[in-house]
Design brief:
By secondary structure, the chain is of the alpha/beta class. It has one domain: Rossmann fold. The chain contains 2 helices and 6 strands; from the N terminus they run E-H-E-H-E-E-E-E. Strands 2-1-3 form a 3-stranded parallel β-sheet, sandwiched between helices. Helix 1 links the parallel strand 1 and strand 2. The N and C termini lie far apart (37 Å). One of its GO terms (cellular component) is cytoplasm. One of its GO terms (molecular function) is cysteine-type endopeptidase activity. Belongs to the peptidase C14B family. This is Peptidase C14 caspase domain-containing protein.
């Protein structure tokens, strides 16, 4: 008998209220995405973790909390399960964390992408890569 595969999601929205970097629609983006995942793609609400910096939020989307939520999602997954990550908030480009090997060398203008959690503790794309 085949087990039903899980669909797991982590959704993060940062409006940065009260800062000079304030945005106005990121929490709404996350709530709309949650509704779409449940209604259109049959995600179980219990399998969706939502982190926002809304007033009164139980868990804020700090760098550490986002990394923890992603690690927990990966730990819950089994072979064949679907994983989905959605981020709405500021992003930035930073100098490379590790050198890349593109042909003869790295273009000095190349940068790594990072997301900006509500505590401004940047998260790069290298969070869950091995090696």
């Amino acid at each position: 008998m085949e087990t039903k595969k899980k669909m797991l999601a982590t959704l993060v929205g940062c409006n940065y209220a009260g800062t000079r970097y304030e945005l106005r629609g990121c929490i709404n983006d996350v709530l709309a995405m949650r509704d779409v995942l449940v209604a259109r793609f049959s995600f179980a609400p219990a399998d969706i973790t939502v982190l926002t910096d809304d007033r009164g939020a139980a868990v804020l989307p700090t760098g550490a909390n986002i990394k923890r939520a992603l690690a927990e999602m990966v730990a819950r997954a089994a072979s064949g399960d679907g994983l989905f990550f959605h981020y709405s908030g500021h992003g930035t480009l930073i100098p490379p964390v590790k050198p890349h090997h593109h042909g003869h060398g790295r273009d000095a203008r190349e940068r790594d992408e990072a997301i900006v959690p509500c505590d401004f503790n940047l998260i790069t794309g290298n969070v869950h890569r091995n090696g």
